[in-house]
Amino acid sequence: MIRRTPVVHSARRPVAIVAGLVVVALGVGLALVQSRGPSSPHGGSPARGAMSAAAAARVHAIQRLLHERSVALVRRDRSAFMATVDPAAKQFRRRQSRMFTDLAPVPIGSWSYEMTTTPRRSPPDAARYRDPVWAPSFFALHYRLARFDPKPTTLQQYPTFVERDGHWYLASLTDYARRGLVSATDIWDYGPVKVLRGRGVLVIGAPSQQATMTEIVHEVPAAIDQVTAVWGTQWTRRAVVLVPATTREMGLIDDYTGDLGDIAALTSAEVSTAAGHPAPVGDRITINPANWPKLSNVGAAVVIRHELTHVATRAVTGTQTPTWLSEGFADYVGFLDAGVSVDVAAAELKRLVGAGRAPDVLPTNRDFRSSSTQLAASYEAAWLACRYVAQHFGQRTLVGFYRAVGTSPSPYPTVALALALEDVLHLRIDQFVTRWRHYVIGELS
Questions:
Q1: Residues of the chain with CATH 3.10.450
Q2: Distance between CA atoms of residues 20 and 138, nearest Å
Q3: pLDDT (tens digit, 9 = 90+) per residue, 51-67?
Q4: How far apart are the C-alpha atoms of 22 and 20, rounded to whole Å?
Q5: CATH number belonging to domain 21-185
Q6: Which of 8, 22, 109, 117 has the fewest beta carbons under 10 Å from its own?
Q7: Torsion angle, alpha carbons of 39, 42, 43, 44, to 10
């Protein structure tokens, strides 16, 4: 019997597009430094607000520091990397040294930094440095996993830089935490990691999770084929899976603040909709180490296919896509040909139907919050909505319907859904809901 565990997906912190950026980028065999600061619009005297000579010198020094740090990390030069860290920050130096070591097995394809030239207010207790400090109003680390990330993903951070004897150093990434500005982290920030590779899959995990990592590296290739059989080949057909040591680390890595007690896995990505359509990068599947061992073999396969479906569909999952459709479609692919009966897969919804409480409206986005008392029933109702479309209109039509909603010219969920229902299924929303409700009752009575 499958233990059905609600599965959610979250987005990483949005990264703002800001003016006045300093970009320090390093790829394998490439080092690029680019600065865009205030300047005169007519090429004459500097514009109001332009940097002073001292400020420009400081930005140049920190720019050079970040370049040296990037080069050292990619080339695995510990001495050069540690030379960028404040020599007086003993605890921070120890953490940075451990992070450098823990990153060693990870296939880093590129590593870069981006920051504004405009300053942030000094951090709390800045006086403890006893030397000049500076912090940018925006700062981000961009990194790319070789062969798995087509483009770099972003970790927004809140550093403090300090000047010692005429040299600038990175002094902290946590000074602003008490103001609620917490630097984003990744799995290697929490201890040593191991790396396993399989066809189309890279698994990065804590050494204590070796058994789970091995299970996943064998499970994912077949799951990629199954997702592709439904969705098509228009996705990367690759997966990066993280297996942290604890559930707490899982929440920190994915910036997920909900209850993870009943969640086996989640997906995350940096998603920008600046161009009007999702442009995801850095897709990750993160496993809950506390719940994964509780899954049966069938349950594990369903969860992996579910999460991979989120990865495959994310580029056409717009803000107008209702959660019931994204989660229901992921469950449709997850349960397809899994050998799980409807009564088992929709046990909670079956109980409600038996009590005369069959749903008469589609689940709302709020119904999928981890705090919802009807979370399991909402997933099951969403799954049966997508299953109804596939059985009555065909699987290809279900895929077309999903794409039509996510790429709708309307940014409004109700309008996007109504347009797709009319264009693809030739149904009004009330007709669809009525037919879905009858289908649920028929399947679960």
A1: 21-185
A2: 10
A3: 789 999 999 999 999 99
A4: 7
A5: 3.10.450
A6: 109
A7: -100
